[in-house]
Design the sequence.
């Protein structure tokens, strides 16, 4: 499908260059704004305004919202005041807020000049909420009803107000002070048998709402748990201030999963897509953790230095260091990633620490014993028999396998404990994933290995 | 919030044990089915049927759907035929399919006996679609309209049929052969100025649909990209067979992100939640990769053995092995995770390989030079000056730092290339993440290190 799409894209660009504007317009009118926006991200700077002016008014606004900030800025700089107003008038409040957040100050000034006063005050209100809060991703455009209205009156109100609302399917019932008292869906309204039924008889009153300060990840989780189209956002006095819709929740969910994956692999989270990132951007996201982890590997180096004499006496031991370190790292990251994901899906709480440790300990013993046994066979068969390394005795193999078993158990313990502790201390558990844990586990496993070697092999 | 919820839970269980059924019922009726289901997962076996029988009929069905399979099975085994029928009658087709897929054969037989023939044939049809396809997660319950209907007739039809449909907000316009020709939203219908307007004048005809064979991840991505409430599923002849709704897409998105994270950290993906997994389950998911990676570390061991003489001549080199390996592993997994995520978000295609390699090469050189410089300073200051290790000369430091720079560049190249190649060969790119890449990079970095050491230090 992606390939077919590229062919269409190329054909459209050719039409633009050949000035076949009428045909082009006929094709564009059949396309979805998201697809048109995707095409824009591949256009060069001169073509963007040309192509944009071929869109219908409604399409233009919807496409504009889906475009990446660079193309948006380019277009706005080229817009006349009336063109800018035409686009801004069609924006929903939450999209306008996103635009304002991403544009440079002088562009923002022009945008705000073209917005009507009501929209401007809504934008300003939303901008005051902390980043990543429900307030910062909500929209103020929802349908509100009164409890005393009848079903027919409510439908009439939706018909009158609905055009400008992001969703009309869930309507919120508020009292005269904007206090949230119930909700009613358009389905309930349409399926109601009597048009004279008052809304208060129909509305659901066991409401689930969030406050404007609730974290956006929490909001997304709730929308997905309850399968709602939208979630009402209230202030400290239960007064309705906005709604968060399911499509924004989906975006939050995708972004949060990406952020977790980035943190887990030692990357600073970035807002830019990979395609748009320059090598300098990537360098900035990656070098902090690399430097930190390189420096912290000094400890592992020190441990090896401390046991240099033992190693010199039995150089064969060195060959097993990578295997021990890698298995430790893998065991630890398996445990930490499982636990981190469970925490972020809301299945695990800090209070489950003991339960998790017990479960991981059993798993670790099972894994450790299996790996140690397999490793013993491998060493005796491959290293000793096939490769003919006489210095790899059964005793050396035993030391390696004991160290391996201990490493696996320690790795799983560190791997499951650190994310939960991080959560309890209000840090992001995702930071406690493989790179961080690998460094700790490396040091522990080398210590175990050399100590065992000294004691058992008497070197 | 989670804590408050636990307090409520405990209070409800106490009421159940004290047989305060009337109060309990009054409280349960105000609760959301998802929350009630969550509470059930903490109840012991005797309490589950007791608590369930206190729910209202509608609540019972909605709660049942949200419960975990173990509790569902327990309840069904205790149900009379009429109790089972009451629950099954209220299920949407897609929920019924999920239930049938998860229950053992004898339970499935009882369920199917209680479903009406139409539902049964829908269930059977959906079950025939391949796992993870659009067909397997769709529902057959949608509102279909005819192009010749008027707006008023359409609204009347929705009122008559809507109760049993999963969503009424997007209605699909089909011809007499079920061929999909357009869609119309309830918003369009409500906002239409004239009730006599025929649907064909109102409907959107530039449709976006998927086939029943489309991968569920693709479907979820499309729903999120276009912000649709539902996506129509058609067969090879463009005949409508069902719809996939946004809430199922959200679940797919969460599951796919979890699966990617699991694969990335060397875990076999699991359907069971962490809480429900026994140590044996966890062991089964973890041991295959651990064993594979342990055995593949043999190569790294062989490389060290091959250079044993060089190492014996300059034992100080051993101390830098962990730092080299860890930095290589981290650099590689940074690149691979970034690329894997971009692929799964649909930003990167296999054809972008060269572009990616160029970008990663620049990034790698920047990271490599920075790390090598930092490492040189660290070695000269910490290892040589502070720790007084006389054998760590400037030449040794130079060898380590050159090996480090080369390792970083190789790691980033391997890390960015393998996922894209995997994608091109139709494997899941997520498998090509840290554990796998670490093993390859370890071998490469040790080879570079020892070769440089031999040449430059002449050992």
Sequence:
């Amino acid at each position: 499908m992606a390939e077919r799409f590229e062919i269409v894209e190329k054909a459209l660009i050719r039409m633009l260059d050949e000035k076949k504007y009428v045909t082009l317009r006929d094709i564009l009118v059949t396309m979805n704004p998201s697809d048109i926006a995707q095409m824009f991200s591949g256009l060069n700077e001169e073509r963007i305004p040309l192509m944009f002016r071929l869109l219908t008014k409604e399409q233009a606004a919807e496409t504009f919202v889906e475009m990446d900030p660079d193309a948006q800025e380019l277009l706005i700089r080229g817009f006349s005041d009336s063109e800018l107003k035409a686009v801004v008038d069609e924006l929903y409040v939450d999209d306008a807020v996103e635009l304002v957040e991403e544009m440079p100050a002088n562009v923002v000034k022009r945008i705000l000049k073209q917005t009507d006063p009501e929209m401007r005050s809504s934008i300003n209100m939303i901008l005051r909420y902390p980043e990543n809060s429900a307030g910062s991703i909500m929209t103020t455009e929802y349908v509100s009803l009164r409890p005393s209205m009848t079903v027919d009156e409510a439908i009439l109100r939706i018909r009158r107000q609905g055009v400008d609302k992001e969703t009309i399917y869930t309507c919120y019932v508020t009292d005269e002070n904007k206090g949230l008292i119930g909700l009613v869906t358009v389905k309930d309204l349409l399926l109601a048998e009597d048009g004279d039924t008052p809304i208060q008889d129909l509305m659901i009153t066991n409401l689930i709402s969030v406050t404007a300060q609730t974290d956006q990840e929490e909001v997304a989780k709730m929308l997905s748990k309850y399968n709602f189209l939208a979630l009402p956002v209230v202030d400290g006095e239960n007064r309705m201030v906005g709604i968060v819709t399911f499509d924004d929740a989906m975006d939050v969910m995708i972004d949060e999963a990406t952020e977790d994956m980035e943190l887990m692999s030692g990357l600073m989270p970035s807002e830019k897509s990979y395609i748009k990132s320059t090598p300098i951007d990537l360098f900035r996201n990656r070098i902090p953790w690399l430097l930190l982890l390189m420096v912290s590997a000094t400890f592992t180096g020190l441990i090896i230095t401390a046991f240099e004499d033992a190693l010199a006496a039995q150089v064969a031991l060195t060959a097993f260091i990578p295997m021990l370190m890698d298995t430790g790292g893998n065991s630890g990251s398996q445990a930490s990633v499982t636990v981190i994901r469970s925490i972020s899906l809301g299945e695990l709480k800090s209070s489950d620490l003991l339960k998790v440790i017990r479960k991981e300990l059993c798993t670790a013993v099972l894994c450790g014993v299996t790996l140690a046994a397999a490793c013993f066979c491998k060493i005796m068969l491959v290293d000793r028999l096939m490769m003919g390394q006489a210095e790899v005795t059964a005793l050396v193999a035993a030391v390696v396998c004991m160290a391996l078993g201990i490493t696996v158990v320690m790795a799983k313990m560190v791997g499951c404990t650190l994310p939960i502790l991080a959560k309890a201390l209000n840090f992001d558990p995702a930071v406690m994933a493989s790179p961080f844990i690998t460094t700790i586990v490396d040091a522990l496993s080398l210590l175990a290995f050399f100590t065992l070697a000294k004691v058992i092999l008497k070197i």
Notes: Residues 81 and 390 of chain A are 84 Å apart (CA to CA). Chain A touches chain B through 121 residues (CB under 8 Å). The mean pLDDT of chain A is 89. DSSP finds 23 helices and six strands in chain A.
